Amino acid sequence: MKRLFAALTVAAIVLSGCQSADDHVVARVGSHSLTSGELDELLASPFVKEALAKQAGSTEELPGSVPAVSPRSIIAIFVRTYLSDSVLRELGDSVTTVDRSTAKEQIASQGTVGSPAAEEVLVNYFAAIAAVRRAIGETSEPSAAQLSDYYEQNRAQFADVICFEGIITRTPEIRAEARTKLEAGSSFEDVMQELNAADTTGEGVAGPLTDQPCLDGSALPPQEDAVGAVLRSGALDALSEVDVPASTGETFPGIIRVTDRGALGLDNEWVRTTVASAVSQDLSDLRTTEFNRIQQAAAARLEAHVDPRYGAFDPTAETLVVPIAPVESAKARSKKTAAASDAPVAGG
Hints:
The chain is of the alpha+beta class. The chain folds into two domains: 2-139 and 287-336, no CATH class; 160-262, Roll (Chitinase A, domain 3). Helix content is 51%, strand content 14%. The strands form three sheets. Strands 3, 4, 5, 6 and 7 form a five-stranded antiparallel sheet that branches. A three-stranded antiparallel sheet has the order 2-1-8. The longest helix is centred in the C-terminal third of the chain and has 33 residues, at 269-301. It is elongated.
């Protein structure tokens, strides 16, 4: 116990420096420090409690979360602020004046946090986290070469595609009116809007057949289905009238126009959009992987010190600050040894 008390006393002296006993340093990262006074103010802040509660319930992996409002969780966000700064430097980015202004507005909208020093701790944290999220999320537009490479590697995905437009109406009469408008050159979207605008029931009389402009052939209705037959073999750009079955067992008068069919290339808008989305996701995944690597390396280099009364800095832990297991006294170890020697031996 004496050894533990002595260790705590030495750590407190090292961390506090010239601080008074009433306001000592509880954490330090490089030249930045968090005092016990700032810690108490932040712990008492309703804004902090709400913000950390939301973060703990977030499904986002980055930049990490803390389980509850506690001294250790406040120290964790202090440490993470400067870890984020280090990561940003590695990424060639930094906290901007916009990041800081947004953080200040966010905090000011919740009222007074405490002293200017305590508020600055939060401003620094929220600004750094916003900058990291922006840096991770920023990906350049896929190049033509990247789109082409992905398409060639996944060409089979676009070997049997059918692109079409369609409308479903309430009655054959409304369908006939829709067809007249379509034949006159109106788009499916405009026809639906015009028909529904003229509807006096307020329930709507026309809607889209699908929200997908193109489908893989394997996802289409069977050939014997009226809709499936038109999609698979109907004339391109022709208006085909079909009765569309609903899940309720009813059928509704509809119109379909197939715009493209077969093996489609990057000149097709849907194919290009699909490929671009996939490539962007791949680039984002790579950037996140690289960020994780940079963050782990930065955490390992971070010169962070925490008053052991509150926990310890652990660069491998998601929360960065972890509790310290109590040191077992010599007396307790002696009791355990004695109890073990007195225990009956199996089979004896």
